Amino acid sequence: MTSPHVASRPAHLVAAFTLAGALVTPSHAVRLDPDGRGQALIYPYFTARRLINDNPFVTAFTVINSDSSPKAVRVRFFEGKAGAQILDFNLFLGAGDVWTAGIVGVGTGGGIFSADNSCTYPPIGRNAANAISFKALYQNDGFGDSLDRTLEGFFEIVEMGRIDPASALGQSVTHNQNFSSPNASVPSCVNLPTGPAEPGGMSRPVGGLSGSASLINVNEGTDFTFDGIALSQWSDKVQWSPTGNFEPNTASVSPPVSTVLQSREDGDVMVVSRWNAGYQALSAILMTERIVNQYSVEPLIKAATDWIVTLPTKRFHVASTVADKTPFLDRLTTGPTGSAIRAEPASFLYFDREGQTPGDEICFLGPCGTYLPYVSTTLPYMANGGVTPTGLVLGGANRILYQSGGLNSAWINGWAELRFADDDFRRLIAPPGASKVINTSTGDVISATATVTYFGLPVVGFAVESYSTTGLPGVNPNVISNYGGSFVHRYQRRMKIAP
């Protein structure tokens, strides 16, 4: 077969947005930011799980405000099985402020703490011993009610509004300079807003947020890092609300307009679509027909690979109040305990480094085929038909299930692709005539009233690989040598444009 042309989203977007941005109307249309800074951030994964040898993970993450004014942002966490919310709070960032936090195991579930001085409401525990526990707010949803679900998932941070530094709130959240020791500056955090009324001195979001996360296992000596996915032009209005409200979230796109680039052999085009709802605009910019990434299970370096595949907008599409659930099938199939779970079909092929492939797709969850059982799913790569109850690298319990074993023993490293092609259902259709199509080479408007179909699923994620030479022949037995690396997924998107 012929390998598909695949490229990362950020590399596609840089030139196009620079050239054609002035032609896009309305002025706000949510898009993926190629420079990693925006009004909202999606972090595809967190984990506080333990590996099979009981070594625990900690997820350390940061959010940076590179704007010249303070911001009020909402921080939300979601468990990985169904994408149910497990915690939210408001964070107030001073100008140039960085907020850091850690996600750790707390009892049978997960929780968060922060030794940072930035203002939060409600306050967050200052150390792991006083971490705030995630909550089991997903009772009776069919995926089990235990707190174990909160040990892995994903999270998001959205800018509710920019704060005037001269306002009472701006002064309250601005750090008082103190150079006596590292990170000694502390804001007063007095009279933080807690009610529904919009705080004085607040204006619409302007962006400048960026962030990253590290999946750290101290006992293993590994650290896997990735960046938060930045959304620009997410909102044209203040989106303040007190803690405990479901909104704002990343689907609160205002106006509900998306900007997406399609790479074509005869020239790239930019597509601007107006949707009926914000979650549709968010899904549109994340739609992809294929994921491509690398893998290794090479025994000479004890290699193992996990892919993380997260569907951050599935919860909006399959909600009971939504009539049209596309592009999700939300298909009922059999889970690991024999119970019915709602899964997304896909197909999977893998290749060695020389482009050779066994030819047949791997069968994961019967009948023969690939299924993503969860909103945030781990795809573990296993050599020689091996079987594991969790991901090999991160210990993820929300994993794709192998029915016919792992990789063929001859294919120990190479690349693979996960496909979501299904033209009859795997699609998101913008309202008729509600899309503008722009030629990025010339800046010409190809069509101002196009109807556009986006194919695939809205996906984010990355791959992690671990390696070790500990105990191998020729290696000093007193040397512990564990390594790790992370690799962003590459995507192929496809759209059908009807004039």
**Structural class given helices, strands, pairing?**
mainly beta
Give the mean pLDDT.
87
The number of distinct structural domains comes to 2
Global morphology: globular
| Percentage of residues in helical conformation | under 10%
Strand tally is 32
Largest sheet properties: 8 strands, antiparallel
Low-confidence stretches: 1-25, 363-368
Number of helices: 4
What is the CA-based Rg, rounded?
A: 23 Å
Percent in strands = 35-45%
Terminal CA distance reads 32 Å
Keywords:
499 residues; mainly beta; 8-stranded antiparallel β-sheet; 6-stranded antiparallel β-sheet; 4 helices; disordered N terminus
Task: Give an account of the 3D structure.
By secondary structure, the chain is mainly beta. It has two domains: 274 residues, no CATH class; 222 residues, no CATH class. The chain contains four helices and 32 strands. The strands form six sheets. Strands 1, 2, 4, 5, 8, 10, 11 and 14 form an eight-stranded antiparallel beta sheet that branches. The protein has a six-stranded antiparallel beta sheet with strand order 9-7-6-3-12-13, with no helix packed on it. Strand 6 and strand 7 form a beta hairpin. The chain is globular, with a radius of gyration of 23 Å. The N terminus is likely disordered.
